[in-house]
Input
Amino acid sequence: MNETTGSAFGRWLQDRLRSRRWSVQYFASRLGVHPKTPQSWIAGRSSPNPARIETIARVLEVRPGEVWDVVARDWLNVGDVASEGRASSETPAIRTAADPSRTLDSWLREEASRRGLSAEDLSVRLGVDVATVRFWTSGLLTPSSSQIPTLAAALGVPHELISSLATN
Output
């Protein structure tokens, strides 16, 4: 685990794995995910799907609230979180969405590509079927109002940004 961590959760997870002397592969197998998933968390390229928080806590034998606190720091851009993928007018995600002619499907495709995320990756992070993500990125469907906060949190952007794109 020599990866540079770019998020509070990534650093927190890496510390927990080191203290247990667990490899990322071992942790991934206990969690039931591909090793690329926790590698992406550690590198700060993504954060865990909210539906997976309880499982992470159980596997690491910590309180779910502890995991939520660290993940929320990244989502809310609090503390010493790296700026990549965080909500700020200087991040590429916000700049590209600022174009009033921009649609959610084109922004979502570009943002996922910029972050190296496939439709499958997003579906896992969001806890939705991969077909749902594909419908969103093709413009055939838009996320429901109840899905927008989770999508925003998974991408580290304000939910208002996705809401505004969804109405374009």
Q: What stands out?
A: The chain has eleven helices and no strands. Confidence is low (pLDDT under 50) at residues 78-92, 94-98. Residues 28 and 49 are 14 Å apart (CA to CA). Residues 8-75 form a domain with the 434 Repressor (Amino-terminal Domain) fold (CATH 1.10.260.40).
